[in-house]
Structures are given as structure tokens and as C-alpha cells.
Design brief:
Elements (H helix, E strand, L loop, with lengths): L1 H4 L5 H8 L5 H16 L4 H14 L4 H5 L14 H6 L12 E2 L5 E6 L16 E9 L5 E4 L6 E4 L5 H7 L7 E6 L17 E11 L18 E2 L5 E2 L33
Antiparallel strand pairs: 1-2, 2-6, 3-4, 3-5, 3-7, 6-7, 8-9
Helix pairs in contact: 3-4
Length: about 270
Amino acid sequence: HLIAMDAHRPVSRVARVARVATPRWLLVGLLLHSAHQCFSPGDGSSRSSYLRRDLLAIGASSEVLLRPPEAWAEGFDPFGEEQKKQAPKDLKTPPPDAQVTKSGLKWKILKAVDCEATKCAKPRAFDKVSVAFTGFEPDGRVFDSSRTRGKVQFQVSQVIRGWTEGLQKMNVGETIRLWIPGDLGFGSEGKGGPPGDIVLDVTLFGLKRGQAPPPTPEELTVPADAEVTESGLASKVIRPGNGTDTAKEANRAVVEWYGWTADGQLFD
């Protein structure tokens, strides 16, 4: 039936299709040939039809490629099945002793340090930290990990909100598990990472102090005396300046700024 499907193709191509059940190296060669036909100069519709036919031709032997023998498939886990087996069992349901913040972040220290014997230090928003981490989806698949590439360094406030908040619960030397809801992670659409809830295991190796963060303002809701623009932006001058110029849209400005979430978390 494969030869009948390709009645209009050159005989050499039909012969190549007919030998689909031959060794793996020939199947790989067939795929490479299809890619060459697809991307080489010529008629676009003809190239794409060749590619579709070649892929149909290897359908009978697809298990050879998708489910290779154990010796050939060492470390091959395209669907994350091995990751799921080895993943922590509480990814979907945090244990009863997990703590919960006002934002909805759940966390638990997996490996604590003795603060009586060691001078403990917790990161602040503008500190730079050195960590190792593994990020899990609720079903156990790993979406990112530093464990294979070593420690990573970054400023505490420069990661997703749930991670920023969770890091400030740790002491240097500790390992924490963070159950991060979607609105504190990558959002429902998964911008930059998996959508919805995620779980992070983080080990904090060290920190370098940055600028001390300012105190959280008492007014995080819009005060009655705020000015509101037509677009809905509310603002209030909390410290008047002594200049006479007002910034225009086309001007370049030099500023210092801080940003808080509605629940008082400094995010930048």
C-alpha cells in the first residue's frame, strides 16, 4: 500500500520507502533525506508532500525510534516518566506542617541549620544569593534544575514572586520546598515557565548583602486624597521636590523607585 500511495514518485524513492523495515541507521537516513527534500530549493508543495509520505512510510517501524532498546535508550525519558517516579510525593498536596503566607505561598524547611551554633542570615530583597534548585510541575516532571550545571547566582527580587518571598524565609545552608501558586509563579498562561502551580526545592549556599530595602509603606491601598487620571492611574506626592520642571513623555529621567504588591511584598 505504501508503493501504491507513491505511484507518482520516482522509482528510486519508492524503493527507499519499501525498505522501511530495515535497520535503524537506514530509518535515520530516511528522516535526514526527508528533511533535505523539505528544505532544499524547489517547489514548496512538492517538498512538503515528500516529507509527509516519508513520515508515513516509517510509521510501521516508529516503535524502533520512539521506544528504543534499553541499552540504546539510556537516559532517554521524553515523557518524564522516570522523573515522575523519582519526584517527591507531596507535590500536589503540601504536608500539614507546611507554613502558609498571606500571599498563598506554602513552604517547609527540609534541611535546617542550627542558628545557635551558626550565625544565621536570611536574604533580603536586594541581596545576591547563590543557590541550587529543582523546579517541579505538580505531576512530578522537572521543568528546570541547576543540579546538573552547578550553583546559580541572582538578586532575590529578580525572580518570580513566590521564589522571592520564599528565599527570605531561609537561612544560609538550609533547603526549602516552596509550593508556589500560579499567580506567584508564571501565571495561568505560563509566561516564561509552566502555567499554574509549581514546586521548587531550593538550597541556599550563600548571600552577598545589597542595599537595605526601605520600610513597607503604611498606605498600599489608594488613599482618599490621591489624584486619579482618566486612565485610572492613582498617585500622591509623598515628598515634594524643589525643582520647577515637569517631565514630559519624550524626556529621559533619572529615578529611584520601589515596587510593592498589595499584600506588602517588595518585588523590585
